[in-house]
Amino acid sequence: MLSAGAVALLAGGRAFAADKPEDVRGDLAILNEAVGLEHEGIDAYELGIKSGLLRPDVVTAATRFQDDHKAHRDALVATILKMGRKPVDERTLAEHAKAL
Question: Is there a contact between 39 and 96 (Cβ–Cβ < 8 Å)?
Answer without folding.
Answer: yes
